[in-house]
Amino acid sequence: MTKSGQARFSRRKSASWTSVNRHAHLLFFAAILSVGATPQPAAAYGTVSDSPGRDQQLSAAPAMKLTGPSRPPREPQRPAIILAHAIVVRTSPAQGGVGAEDIGKVEVWYDAGIRDAFAALAVVSASGERVDKRDAAIDSADPSHVSVSVNRLNPGKYTVRYRALSADGHLVSGAWEFEVRP
Description:
Layout: H1 3-34, E1 47-51, E2 54-57, E3 88-92, E4 98-99, E5 105-110, E6 114-125, E7 137-138, E8 145-149, E9 156-166, E10 171-180
Parallel strand pairs: 4-10
Antiparallel strand pairs: 1-2, 3-5, 5-8, 6-9, 7-8, 9-10
């Protein structure tokens, strides 16, 4: 190939590459502008000419939806472990209630099982005397139930003091009162 032929080829090559490059840039910007917009006719984007007398109609780029970087799928989450202090849900005799003289035992039920280490239940008379048999125990069939034996009770007011170690390790304590009537 002669020098003039190489120059002509080089000019032709560079002109076509320039045209392709320009066309690619226009398509790129048209695509960006068309995202989320109603597609317009191709004539709205104008014409490109890579050589005099040769106009090419640009076509609209297909509408695209831009999204951010994809995130890896989330791993299924385990249910949260909820640890809460045990609370008294029931007593026998009832709080503020009336008990029989020959009740036999005083009982408390918690909303969840408790630990044996600090379980305590004490029944105290109005004069401050402890009247239970000091045998408070957690029910082996129901770890949320604690009872203590009592002898025959005289009429009067009694206070029951309780203490328990929750499954979450917190110590809970409190008291309730009941009355024995003749």
